[in-house]
Amino acid sequence: MTLGADHPGSGKHKVAIVGSGNWGSTIAKILAENTEAQSDVFQKEVKMWVYEEKFQLPDSHPKYDSSKHSKPSNLTELINELHENPKYLPGVALPEHIIATPDIKDCVADASILVFNIPHQFVPQICKQIEGQHLPYARAISCIKGVSVSEDGISLFSDSIGKRLGIYCGALSGANIASEVAQEKFSETTIGFSPDDSKLKPLPEGLPKVDHELIQNLFHRPYFHVKMIDDVAGVSLGGALKNIIALATGFVDGLGWGDNAKAAIMRVGLLEMRKFGKMYFSNSCRTATFTEESCGIADLITSCSGGRNHRCAKLSIERGKSVDEIEQSELNGQKLQGTLTAKEVYEFLKKEGTTEEFPLMTAVYNILEGTVKPEELPDIIDPKSPKRSPSPHKL
Ligand SMILES: NC(=O)C1=CN([C@@H]2O[C@H](COP(=O)(O)OP(=O)(O)OC[C@H]3O[C@@H](n4cnc5c(N)ncnc54)[C@H](O)[C@@H]3O)[C@@H](O)[C@H]2O)C=CC1
Ligand SMILES: O=C(CO)COP(=O)(O)O
Question: Which residues form the Glycerol-3-phosphate dehydrogenase NAD-dependent C-terminal domain (predicted)?
Answer without folding.
Answer: 231-377
